[in-house]
Known about the structure:
The protein is an all-alpha fold. The protein has one domain. Helix content is 79%, strand content 0%. The chain has helices at 2-49, 71-108, 115-141, 145-157, 161-201, 207-235, 244-291. The longest helix has 48 residues, at 2-49. The protein is elongated and about 105 Å long. The relative contact order is 0.15.
Amino acid sequence: MKKNTIILAGAAIAVSLAFALVASAQVNATAVSAGAASGAGRARFEARFGSTTPRMHMGSTTPGMRDGMSSTTRMQNEQQRVTALQGRSDTEIAQRIDSLNKLLSRVSSMKNISSSDQASLSSSIQTEIATLTTLKTSIDSDTSSTTLKADFQSITKSYRVYALVLPQASITAAADRVLDLVASFNTLTTKLQGYVTTAQSNGTNVSSAVSALADISAKTADASTQANAAISEVSGLQPDQGATTTLDANTATLKDAQSKIKTATADLAAARKDVTTVVNVIKGSMKAATNAPAPATTASGAASASTSTQ
């Protein structure tokens, strides 16, 4: 009786773990989906217009307006434009550096990608942070709106964070999480197999559980394949440096890798449902064993069969 209770509790814990594992995978896949999509969209906007922040008007084009201004007024207006654009530039740069630092932390905790890919990603992110920091220093020291405007535009034209580095690292991080979950599912499957074997030895029909266990193996294997393929796809991408053809190729690759992460997530969701099927079979077997009538015993403790009356 006590043994059956322990086994049932273990099976319940197993399915709870499976639900938690897949919920985590879905959160990561949703995040990378949104990140890659926004990155690709922002990249195209930047490629066409030069910035995601509305361009500042650097001077009036109204005939006679500038001619009617005193030199002091023009200098004051120039300073106002410089100050305003510096503020916008600092905000753009700060947002990028914050995102990059968060990704750098995620990359450092990855366990399922090669050390070379991990080092390459970390190096790319650190380089972006360093160049953006240097650019901020240059922008903050600009005194001419013309020079400042060129520096401001270079935030998106030269340092294409949202175009490649962020979605590239996000996809890799999500793939790493999928592989981590696959390993956990594999451990869980081994435990469930033991419960199913015990249920079968007790006379329970475990055909549905056996089929579900086979499907779990198939789904986790495909999830692993999809995740590894996504990592391989994005690891070799290089910044477009303003080249539209390269930008388009990078965007297409990122979208394809993103779809692989979605497929892997769907695989894990299906595996979770299979785990539920297996656990239900185990629960049924344990319940039947728990509710079975206890055999009668003699005074000496030996079991005796009941006899029917004629």
